Amino acid sequence: MKKKYPRNEEGFVLVAALLILLVLTVMGISVNRNTTTEVKIALNDRLHKETFYAADAATELATEVLVQSIACFGFSQLTEAEELDGIDEGMRIPGAAGHDFYIEESALGFWRNYNTEGVPIPTDDKDGNGIPDRHMVYPAVFDENLVFDREKTNAQPHSNISIGGNTKLEGGEATQQSDGYRGKGKGLGAGGISLIYDINVQQVGRDGSESVICVQYKHRPGTEGECNYSTYTTK
Question: What are the boundaries of the region Disordered (predicted)?
Fold first, then answer.
């Protein structure tokens, strides 16, 4: 006759519950980490797109400033004291809602920049010496006296812009027309030059984000309008 030993299973339910709880906890931690990672990716993607589209908008604005200034070929660069009323500053171009351009003092004739080797990417600081390597910046911050505030401008999201042009010969077209039965012809040729401008924008966005866009603008001399921006100065 076999002896029957009592089976004590009083702690089994507790152990099983703890195991299930452990599995659920691990799954919860994993899902939470994945969710956090996805959120960070989404935020970074949004920040990147925001900075990129701001740089793209800056190329459009810079092109407009360039177009409005091309007619100023014979205009002085506003470096003489009498033309600046004694203030040796750059040029302020007022914009809508207080969002103004500022053209650096060394680049007041930016529309006449001739560069056959390309235009460098602009930056806030060239070689770490505190001198910006850019022709203009947008949006620029000015104080109540319309004096450019470089520190506040560089501390906010902004666009550094460089512009330079090169001359390109345009091919002509020739048309030969027969003059009736006499076999004579008339010739017509047309050609000329164009100015090809490189417009480079470095957008400095939020949280250290950055985007660079380089575009070209083609201008045919003789089609410019009036010199609109030559008289706006920091006073």
Answer: 156-183
